[in-house]
Amino acid sequence: MLKRIMQGLEFSEKNLALDLIAETRPGGYYMDSMHTIEHMREVALSPTVATRETLRSMGNVRRADAGTLAMKEARKILRRENPAVFSKEVDEKICLRFKGLVAGNAWLEE
Question: Where are the domains of the chain?
Answer without folding.
Answer: 2-43, 82-110
